[in-house]
Amino acid sequence: MKSVTVKTEFKEYDIDLRKGFSNLSDTIKKSGVKGKKICVITDSNIEKIYGEMIKIAISDYFDEVYIKSFTAGEKSKNLETVSDMYKFLLDNHFDRKSVIAGFGGGVAGDMAGFVASTYMRGIDFVQIPTSLLAQVDSSVGGKVGVDFCGTKNIVGAFYQPSFVYINTETLDTLPEREFSAGMAEVIKYGIILSDDFYNFIWDNKEKIKERDKDIMSEIIAKCCEYKAYVVSNDEKEQGMRAILNYGHTIGHAIETLKEFQLIHGECVGIGMVSAMKIGVDRGEVSQKDLDKLKELLSYFDIPVSTDGLNIDDVYNQMFLDKKVSDSKINFVLTKGIGKAYVTSDISKDEIINAISYVLK
Ligand code: ADP
Ligand code: ZN
């Protein structure tokens, strides 16, 4: 199966897409990870389903394997859980040569990465993502961190893993809602980078919904290539990497205001509709494309609007986002499908119109 290489300033690593966990030890060996002691950080759901399986697979290479789990869900992604992990590592004599694995969805990966980046000023870190969202997005590129005081990912670091190992078969057990949320990020790659890929998703939507193995492998590989390409060009988000935030500016504001009612990918779906509405108003995207996006998102049960929110609240929340600099919002827009650009030249009226378009 496929491998994709990510090249960053100090590190080059592979994303290996495989069926099952049996190739994991090969990936570990070729990655250059040296330690023989590992702590697998995972959530309570994943531990139940895959705990034994990962332990067996990883014991092929590591002499000492520890599994440390936390209660599944975004609510656990905080410094308290991190502190609990530091304690676990200290109690079990983890040292500079030990390794940490993030095993699970984005929450496990982001938090494990943050722990790895700070414990003893940084120890080896590997990613084994199991949710679609983590496989196509959050496990690649080195953004790690936790939420703090109601703001998502506000405490964190750039810390690249030594490898990403994607067992595509873990998608079999992913809950429907999480699968849909992951599809929002998949669709995003098409909109910002490739109309061919966007059309591919459209043409294969039935098979995707059935989670057809071959199609899903192809899709995940493609998304990893896109993400690797963007991250390799702009690791620290000085420029191009910002296009990955398509749909995220308004999406994040909605996510914060709808605290724990809507999940990340769902808010990205709503945010993309909103961003594309700005494109339509500017005459850069056709109404037909916007209607098609809404149809595609709806097909995957991703919401295209939300209720119970006030326009001004969403607008103000956007300015509290960490990506605002000098109170200017960097907005990602597209010219048609497949060509994203970043601009701060956007009026309050345009934003207000776009927000009201997705509020019921
Ligand atoms: P995300 O991956 O969307 O950033 P989480 O890490 O919270 O967010 O994962 C979403 C939910 O899906 C969690 O409850 C997690 O336990 C669950 N999950 C992740 N991967 C799988 C899987 N392969 N099988 C079953 N449940 C999974
Ligand atoms: Zn996202």
From TrEMBL:
Localization per record: Cytoplasm
3-dehydroquinate synthase N-terminal domain residues: 70-180
EC number: 4.2.3.4
GO cellular component terms given for this protein: cytoplasm
Associated pathway: Metabolic intermediate biosynthesis; chorismate biosynthesis; chorismate from D-erythrose 4-phosphate and phosphoenolpyruvate: step 2/7
Predominant subcellular localization, coarse grouping: cytoplasm
Catalysed reaction, written as an equation: 7-phospho-2-dehydro-3-deoxy-D-arabino-heptonate = 3-dehydroquinate + phosphate
GO biological process entries: amino acid biosynthetic process; aromatic amino acid family biosynthetic process; chorismate biosynthetic process
Binding site for NAD(+): G106, V107, A108, G109, D110, T130, S131, K143, K152, T170, L171, D172, T173
Keyword Membrane: no
Cofactor binding, note field: Binds 1 divalent metal cation per subunit. Can use either Co(2+) or Zn(2+).
Residue stretches making up the 3-dehydroquinate synthase C-terminal domain: 182-324
Residue positions binding Zn(2+): E185, H248, H264
Cofactor field: NAD(+); Co(2+); Zn(2+)
Xref: PANTHER family: 3-DEHYDROQUINATE SYNTHASE (PTHR43622:SF1)
Role noted for this protein: Catalyzes the conversion of 3-deoxy-D-arabino-heptulosonate 7-phosphate (DAHP) to dehydroquinate (DHQ).
Family statement drawn from the similarity comment of this UniProt entry: Belongs to the sugar phosphate cyclases superfamily. Dehydroquinate synthase family.
Protein name in UniProt: 3-dehydroquinate synthase
Gene source species: Candidatus Fimicola merdigallinarum
Gene: aroB
